[in-house]
C-alpha cells in the first residue's frame, strides 16, 4: 500500500467548451463531438456553428452519450478510491478516545506484541507511543514487566473510508518464568515488534533463537514482524566501529533471512518510532489473508455483542411485565377489604 499517483483524465472526458470533466455528456450529431449538456445549450443559444470547428451547423440536434458517461463515472470512482487510499496513508497513531463522530462506525482491531528480553526497552517504547516526547517527564514504574501490559491507540484516518482502526499493543514480559502468561498473545497477535538492545549483541541472538522461534511456533502462520534494534543513541555514543560493523552484519542477516524490515530506533529520543509502527500496520493491511481474518474476527465479535444486547433487552422486558410481589399482596388486601365492607353493608 504505497502512495499512488493519480493520472490525468483522458482528453475525451473533457468538454471542449469548459475544459472540465463532463458530468452529462451529449453528442452533437453533425460534428460528432461530445460536450457538457449545459455548456452546449448555452453555446447554441449564441452561435450557429460547431464549438470545435466553428463551421456553420445545418443540424443542431444532439443526443445523450451514455457510453461516455459510464466511462467517466467509472474513472471518477477509481479517482475517489485512490484519493481515499492516499489520504489513509497520511495517518498518525493517536492515544485517548476516538472522535465522537466515529462512535457508530465499525471497528477493526489490530493486535501487536512487543517481544524481546528484559531491559531491551519495550516498556520505554510503549510509553513513548503513549505520551510522545513528554514521556520522559512522566514518572512511571520502570521495574521489569511481570505480566502483559496493554496499551490502546487508534489511527486518525478511516480505513477504506469506513473502519475505525484500533491498535492493541501488548508489552510482553521478557523473563522466561512469565512465559506461560504470554502464550495467548503469541497466538492472537497480528504483528510483532522483535526488540533487541543494540549495545548487547547477545540480545539480538536471543531475539532470533527464542522470541522469533516462539512466534513461529505459537503465532499465526501469516503474522507480520519487524526487527527493531533499540538504544541506537547509546550504540552511537558508546560502541566502537568494529562492534558496530559486527552488529549491523548480524542484524541484517537475521532480517534478510526471515524477510522482515529492520529499524534502528531510540525509544528514549523517539527516533524512527512513528515510521516503524506505520510500516508494520501497513504490512498487516497489505496481507490479504491477515486482513480477512481481522475482518472476520471483528464480525463475530459484533454479532456476539448484538446477541448479548438482544438477550438483555428480552430479559428486561420479561421482568418489567411480571407483577411484583408487593402489588400481588396489595391486590389480595384490597379483595379482603372489599369483601369485608360488602358483608358489613349487607
Automatic annotation (TrEMBL):
> Which residue windows does the record flag with biased composition (Polar residues)?
311-323
- Which residues does the annotated region (Disordered) include? 311-346
Stretches assigned to the U-box domain: 8-82
**SUPFAM superfamilies cross-referenced by the UniProt entry:** P-loop containing nucleoside triphosphate hydrolases, RING/U-box
Recorded GO MF terms: GTP binding; GTPase activity; ubiquitin-protein transferase activity
**Name of the molecule in the record:** U-box domain-containing protein
Biological process GO annotation list? Answer: protein ubiquitination
To which species is this protein native? Adineta steineri
InterPro entries documented for this protein: P-loop_NTPase, Small_GTPase, Ubox_domain, WD-SAM-U-box, Znf_RING/FYVE/PHD
Amino acid at each position: 500500500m504505497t502512495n499512488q499517483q493519480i493520472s490525468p483524465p483522458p482528453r475525451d472526458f473533457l468538454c471542449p467548451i469548459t475544459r472540465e470533466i463532463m458530468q452529462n455528456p451529449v453528442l452533437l450529431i453533425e460534428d460528432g463531438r461530445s460536450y457538457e449538456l449545459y455548456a452546449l445549450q448555452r453555446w447554441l443559444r449564441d452561435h450557429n456553428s460547431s464549438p470545435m470547428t466553428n463551421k456553420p451547423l445545418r443540424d443542431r440536434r444532439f443526443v445523450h452519450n451514455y457510453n461516455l458517461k459510464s466511462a467517466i463515472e467509472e474513472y471518477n470512482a477509481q479517482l475517489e478510491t485512490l484519493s481515499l487510499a492516499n489520504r489513509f496513508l497520511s495517518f498518525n497513531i493517536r492515544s485517548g478516545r476516538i472522535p465522537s463522530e466515529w462512535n457508530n462506525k465499525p471497528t477493526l482491531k489490530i493486535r501487536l506484541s512487543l517481544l524481546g528480553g528484559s531491559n531491551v526497552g519495550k516498556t520505554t517504547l510503549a510509553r513513548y507511543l503513549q505520551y510522545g516526547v513528554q514521556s520522559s517527564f512522566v514518572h512511571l514504574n520502570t521495574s521489569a514487566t511481570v505480566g502483559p501490559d496493554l496499551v490502546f491507540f487508534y489511527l486518525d484516518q478511516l480505513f477504506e473510508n469506513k473502519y475505525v482502526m484500533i491498535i492493541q499493543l501488548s508489552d510482553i514480559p521478557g523473563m522466561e518464568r512469565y512465559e506461560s502468561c504470554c502464550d495467548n498473545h503469541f497466538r492472537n497477535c497480528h504483528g510483532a515488534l522483535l526488540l533487541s538492545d543494540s549495545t548487547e549483541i547477545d540480545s539480538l541472538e536471543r531475539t532470533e533463537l527464542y522470541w522469533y522461534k516462539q512466534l513461529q511456533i505459537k503465532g499465526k502462520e501469516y503474522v507480520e514482524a519487524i526487527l527493531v534494534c533499540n538504544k541506537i543513541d547509546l550504540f552511537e555514543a558508546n560502541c566502537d566501529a568494529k562492534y558496530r560493523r559486527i552488529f549491523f552484519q548480524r542484524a541484517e542477516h537475521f532480517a534478510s533471512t526471515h524477510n522482515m524490515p529492520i529499524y534502528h530506533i531510540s525509544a528514549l529520543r523517539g527516533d524512527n518510532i512513528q515510521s516503524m509502527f506505520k510500516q508494520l500496520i501497513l504490512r498487516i493491511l497489505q496481507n490479504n489473508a491477515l486482513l480477512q481474518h481481522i475482518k472476520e474476527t471483528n464480525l463475530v465479535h459484533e454479532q456476539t455483542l448484538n446477541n448479548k444486547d438482544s438477550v438483555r433487552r428480552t430479559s428486561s422486558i420479561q421482568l418489567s411485565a411480571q407483577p411484583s410481589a408487593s402489588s400481588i399482596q396489595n391486590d389480595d388486601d384490597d379483595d379482603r377489604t372489599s369483601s369485608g365492607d360488602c358483608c358489613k353493608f349487607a
